[in-house]
Design a protein that fits this description.
Two copies of one chain form a homodimer. Chain A has about 220 residues and is of the alpha/beta class. The first copy, chain A, has a single domain (about 1-220), classed as 3-Layer(aba) Sandwich (Rossmann fold). The first copy, chain A, has helices at about 45-50, 75-85, 100-110, 115-130, 145-155, 175-190, 200-205; strands at about 1-15, 15-30, 35, 60-65, 65-70, 85-90, 160-165, 195, 210-215, 215-220. Chain A has a six-stranded mixed beta sheet, sandwiched between helices. In chain A, strands 2-1-4-5 form a four-stranded antiparallel beta sheet, with helices on one face. The two termini of chain A are about 15 Å apart. Bound molecules: adenosine-5'-triphosphate (2 copies) and magnesium ion (2 copies). The site of one magnesium ion has 4 residues of chain B, from helix 1.
């Protein structure tokens, strides 16, 4: 469902080109649970942002569910993103002016769901993540781990077809990190395709396949087993 | 060197008081390496911010190197902070308008150090953390782990007497996380007092003592062994 061919990305620094992604060739099938690992600065977050269509400053080809992403305009890309993706950002990107409950409602607002249904879905998510007491607080009133939980909850609340998770457990205690992995495993068994960047071997063990990236190159795992 | 007695902190939420720290009694001796662990929302970051004097909205007593912190004005507290502390924040708090090298120089600027000496210390830090190539970039041009490394480097560059580290390795690969722990161990052997919040058992093993916090209470480890 996700196909990258000869994908390159660089930043211009004065006279030099700093390549962040080099000749990326990658296939991810529907229903796969893939982990992406590698050292700091390898290009993992960058790759996830390309797949999630937040980044269009690259050359090569990207086919998503039959769509040629490199040929689409911004409006169409945003439509596909809102329809199919949930994204857990490495730095969360919660909306500071919205409460926890309002932040969770945002992806539901993109879809054609009745208000009463949306309220029930938000309540269910708050319950599952044990943060009901925080629903009317703002992100800056939450602990680091609580912010991360809200970021994960927001990414999955609308049951998206594709979950992109960039280091979703870095600020959580290991037991809570495992709860998130068990939840991802369940969502994957129910049909979600998951692409997860992680530094944790424990987390990576939940994936069907591990892609190793270093210095912008895919070192192993590019093709489905 | 750090003594907290009957320290309470709460947030007013409508008619209710939400206690974040409850009757904290804690002693940390000079030269100790202490780990603080506990679930999300337990109050760990809050406790570190009280110790580092960024938070003064609490009741009780705090004695730091003989100074009665609860009796000092803001100016005096800031002086003590700049003189004695290095702080690795859970969300880094790098200055977005300064380059990596400029961010590293900030703590040196508080002290009476010659410019040439400061440049050498910044260069040494960039070298040690293998981020020389990033010195003229801004924080938003760095990967998550690179930002964390800069946050750690900034906290230790001026050789502070007390290092407060709030989950200093959450975005790093385990091998790099261990490098940071080995560095902390060395700094501690050279005389630094270290108070580190961590979710990692591996990191906590580097400490002399572990303090467990839950729901604002210290559950164990409050007194030096
Ligand atoms: N401004 C605020 N208003 C209300 N509650 C707050 C505020 N700031 C923090 N809190 C609450 O204080 C509690 C403790 O927060 P703290 O950041 O110290 O937790 P923590 O132990 O560091 O957790 P983590 O491991 O997730 O980083 C949390 O439940 C949080 O929601
Ligand atoms: N705007 C930019 N200008 C220059 N270089 C950049 C810019 N944005 C990112 N980079 C560089 O791209 C590289 C890859 O960054 P990326 O965030 O993808 O790394 P990562 O693999 O996610 O690392 P981490 O595990 O630390 O999160 C880094 O070396 C970073 O410095
Ligand atoms: Mg990253
Ligand atoms: Mg915290």
């Amino acid at each position: 469902m996700i196909s990258l061919r000869n994908l390159d990305k660089f930043y211009q620094q004065g006279p030099d080109r700093f390549y962040v992604l080099r000749r990326i060739n990658l296939d991810i099938r529907e229903g796969e649970f893939v982990a992406i690992m590698g050292p700091s600065g390898a290009g993992k977050s960058t790759l996830l942002h390309v797949i999630g269509m937040h980044d269009t400053a690259w050359t090569g080809e990207y086919t998503l569910l039959g769509h040629q992403v490199h040929k689409l305009d911004r409006k169409r890309r945003m439509e596909l993103y809102k329809k199919y993706f949930g994204f857990v950002f490495q730095s969360y990107h919660l909306l500071d002016d919205l409460t926890v409950a309002e932040n969770l409602d945002v992806p539901l607002g993109y879809r054609d769901i009745r208000k009463s249904e949306r309220q029930a879905m938000v309540a269910d998510m708050l319950d599952r993540f044990r943060i009901v007491g925080k629903k009317d607080l703002y992100p800056n009133q939450l602990s680091g781990g609580q912010q991360q939980l809200v970021a994960v909850a927001r990414a999955i609340i609308a049951n998206p077809k594709v979950i992109l998770a960039d280091e979703p457990t870095g600020n959580l205690h290991s037991s809570q990190g495992l709860e998130i992995m068990e939840l991802f495993k369940q969502l994957n068994e129910d049909g979600a395709t998951i692409v997860m960047v992680t530094h944790s071997e424990t987390n990576a063990a939940y994936a069907h396949r591990i892609i190793q990236i270093a210095d912008g190159w895919i070192e192993s795992g590019a093709n489905a087993a």
